[in-house]
Amino acid sequence: MIDLITTEKVTYTTPPDAAALGALRRLEALWAIEEPTAEQMAEMDQLEEHLPTVREVRLMLRSATALDAAKYEGRRARMVEWFEAETGRPVAEVLEEENGVTRNALAQIFEQAQSWAVVMTVLVQIEQRTRPLHDDGVEWNEAEIPAEWKESPEAFLAWCPDDLLVAALDAAKRLSPGVWGIPDPLARRYGGVNVTTSVPSSARS
Predict the structure, then answer these.
(1) d(CA 55, CA 14)
(2) One domain for residues 151 and 90
(3) Taking the model in full, what pTM does it have?
């Protein structure tokens, strides 16, 4: 049977600090020199030696299956319970309020929790590594998805940087636009479900 699952990987790298950025800018200028002098080569070696290490995590997400719809609804119900316990406010009440600082802050928490429900439904693998800032050749190590991430938004949202959450949600929507978002009309013409109805010849007369 043909495998209908597609996957996408999203990588997050801890940003370099100001000192590391300054060293990188100087290194890029030195790397651009076609024939560097001995002094410039020595400077490059010294800068590279003192570059910090970065931590990286890579999430692999897959396209949603029919079973995932039920799993998502279960997580969404737990997400609503968590949100109302965390904020002390019913979801419907928060979403019906007029825009304001409090309402917008609570709505953002709700949106992040809703993103958790989507991402955790299709998250299949986590990899991580620590590497020198200028060296991308270090191997990835697979890590176990923490059990507490799957139970409620609390632990996952406390760990996940906001831009990684946004990128992971975008990946989930790209992989299954008909499930997590409104399908692009052009995408629907070339993928997804297309139903063709044929009328028996006896019914045409």
Answers:
(1) 6
(2) yes
(3) 0.78
